[in-house]
Amino acid sequence: AKKKGKDQYAFFEPSMRESFQRHLEMEADLRRAVLRHEFELRFQPIVRLATNEISGLEALVRWQHPERGMIPPLDFIPLAEETGMIVPIGEWVLREACRQAARWNRQRDPDKPLTVSVNLSAVQLDRPDLPDVVDRALADSGLPAHRLVIELTESLLVDHRQETLERLNTIKALGVRLAIDDFGTGYSSLAYLRRFPVDIIKIDKSFVDDVGDVPAAAALTLGIIQLGQALQLSTVAEGIEDAGQLSELADGNCELGQGYYFAEPLTTEAMQDLLFPIDPH
Length: 281
Ligand code: C2E
Ligand code: CA
Ligand code: CA
Ligand code: CA
Description:
Blueprint: H1 2-36, E1 39-48, E2 53-65, E3 69-71, H2 77-82, H3 86-107, E4 115-119, H4 122-125, H5 130-141, E5 148-153, H6 154-158, H7 162-174, E6 177-183, H8 189-195, E7 200-203, H9 205-210, H10 215-230, E8 234-237, H11 243-251, E9 256-257, H12 268-275
Parallel strand pairs: 2-4, 4-5, 5-6, 6-7, 7-8, 8-9
Antiparallel strand pairs: 1-2, 1-9, 2-3
Helix pairs in contact: 3-5, 5-7
The chain binds ligand C2E and calcium ion (3 copies).
C-alpha cells in the first residue's frame, strides 16, 4: 500500500506542474494573441420564426492559434477574464461586429436591416468606461444604436452592484438593446427581469433540447415565451437543431430562433454568401 501511495504521488505531482505550466504558457500566448490580432468572429443567424427571415446575427469569437488551430471561446474566455485580457478582446469583438453589421446593412434592402448581438463579460461591465466604448463603436461604424444587442448572462445580473445597473441604464439610453442570455439556467430570473432594463430573453438551449420529446419541457418553454410576451420582451429560442423543435416553438409564438437547424456560426465570407447569394446565371 505504501508503494502504491508513492506511485500515486509521483503520478500526480508532475501532472499538476504540467497543468500550471500550461496555464502560464496559455497566458503568454493570449497576451501575444491580443497584440497580433489572432481573433476572428463567426456570425450565427437569428431567424424570425413567423417568416423564416434572418433578423439578426450573433457575433461569436474564435482564437486562431498559430500552432494549436482554432480555439473555441469556452477554452480561453475564462482565462481572458481572469487576466483582464477580455477587455481588449471584448472591445475588438464589439467594434468588429458593429463594423461588419453596418457594412452588410449598407448592402441590404434598407427595409430589412440586421441587428447584431455581442456577448459581454462581467469584467467588461465592471469598467466605468464601457458606455463610452459602446458609443464609440457605434459612432465609428455608423451602426444605429437600436441595431446593437448586448447579451448578458443571468449570473452577471445576479451578482450585480448598483454601478452595474447604472451603467446598463446609460447604455440603454444610447438606444442599445439588452438581452438575457441562457435564460432559465440561473436562479432569480423573475426578480431581475423587473429590475433590469431588459428587452430580449434568450431561452437556454437546455430547454429547447427537450421541446418535441418531453412534454413537461415543452410546457416550461412555452411558459417562458408567454412570460416574455406578458412583459413585452422579444423571445429567442437558442440551439434549435430539428424541425420538430422549430414547429413547436413557432406554434407557441416564439418570435425568434437560433441554432444549427438554420445555420452554425459562419465565417464572415460564408455569411456574406448566405446574405447575398451570387446569382449563378
Ligand atoms: P452563447 O452566447 O450561449 O452562444 C451560443 C453557443 O451555442 C455558441 O457556441 C454556438 O456556436 C452554440 N450553438 C448555436 N446553435 C447551436 C445548436 O443548435 N446546437 C449546439 N450544440 N450549439 C449551438 P460558441 O461559439 O462555442 O460560444 C460559446 C460561449 O462562449 C457563448 O455561449 C458565450 O457565452 C461565449 N462567447 C462567445 N463569444 C464571446 C465573446 O465575444 N465574448 C464573450 N464574453 N463571450 C463569448
Ligand atoms: Ca450569447
Ligand atoms: Ca446562450
Ligand atoms: Ca430532442
